Structure formats: structure tokens, C-alpha cells
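Notes from the 1:1 (GR / supervisor)

We went over the backlog. Supervisor wanted to see one worked example end to end before approving the batch request, so GR pasted a single chain during the call. The sequence is below; no edits were made to it. Supervisor asked that the structure be written out right there so they could see what the output format looks like.
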Amino acid sequence: MRVVDLLGRPDLVDPALRLGDVGGEFLYRGPGGKVIAPERLLKHWGRYSLVLLDTDDTLLARALSIPVAFPTEDRPELPDEGWDAALRWAVEDLVDGRAPTTLVALEIVVAPHLLGTGLSTHALKAFKARAVETGLSRLVAPVRPIGKEAEPEVPMPEYAARRREDGLFADRWLRTHERLGAKLVKIAPFALTVTGTLGQWRDWTGVKLTDGPNRIPGGIAPVHASVSHDVGIYVEPNVWMDHPL
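Structure output shown during the call:
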């Protein structure tokens, strides 16, 4: 296995993005997800957009990250908005010409037939290596716990606090980060927000929303819908993890 970036392999941009998603198409319909476009990734963050390849150039996984300036006087702590805020920060820094100091790991997507093979651990290590190689001093990640999809109604602070008998996180994705030395910094209560009409939600998820909270495939929180107002709002909490370099 080897790691390349999209700056050096622009031919892999579209195949990497077609590899799948972290939970569902709907996640990319919010303000943060709309920032991740192929041309934008390649132009601005290609060096931090990594792809794991087999020896025969078979695509194994993608690992997208963005550099941001953090902490700063106006950004003293990791944001409650998590994923959405990290992408906004990256865009602001590009516009303002502010040099980044921290790498934010946005997502890791493994080829479906390779789930559970440990590739996510390799991707996290690749993030850490790229942060060091590019002169950044910190790696943070707004993590969406993988087991939370089965319990979307459970508050994230309660879910993230669960530990096994050996003291490690009960959630296996949080546990993967922890085993690499990461520490839970804070809960991001509204890390990602997606708003759409009921028709849009049906197109994105195949679910016909009803009044009140609704479960959706890939969601780690419910979609709150109003039929009379023809709107559904999804607010996803994440967990900020800080990786030592």
C-alpha cells in the first residue's frame, strides 16, 4: 500500500470522490459539504487530499483534510460547528491569505469491500505524517462515531462517554482515534447542519418524513420535520479529537 495526494495525482480526483461517502448523500447537501468540489479540492487542498492505493494502483480509500489557522486570537477553541466551521475557516484563510497551522481531518472513506481491514488506521497515520511534512503543528478531527447511527436519539455527550471494561471508548471509531493517542477535546453539538424540503429529503434518503423526529439511513441524529412548513432540518453532533504529533 502507498499514499499519494491529489495534487500529484489529479487523475484520481473523480474516482476518489466516487468511492462512497461517510454516511449518506445528504451530508454533502449542507453549507460545508458544498465546499468540497473536485476543482476546489485540487486547486486549494490537493496536497492534503490523500488517496491510499494498492501496489497495482487500485483505489483503497480516500482521506480528505484541510489546513486551517488554529488557534488564533479570533479562534481560541475548536468550534461547536465542527465540520461546517472547519470548512468555513479554510475558505476564510484562503481569502485572507492567512497561513495555516493545524490540519483538520474531514473524512476517511474506505472501499466498501475493505471495511474493517484497518485501512482507516493507516489513513489517520497518513494524516499525521502529512501534517508534519507540511510544517503544521497539530491534527484535529471532528469525528462522527460510527455506532451512533443505531442510536440517533441518544445525546452525543452520553454516547461519547461510554467506555468498555478496559477503559477504551465503546464506539469503535472513537476507539481507533484513541489508540493512536488522540484525546477527546469537546463535543461539537451542531457540527453539520443540512436543511431541505421534504421532497429533497426523500430524494436524498428514500425516506418520506413525517412531523417530528425521523430516522434516516446514515444519520447519527434525527431529522426534525414539519409537514406544514415543508422543511426538514438535520443537525449532527460530532466529537472533536486532538491527535498528538
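Supervisor's comment: The first helix runs from residue 13 to 17.
Batch request approved.
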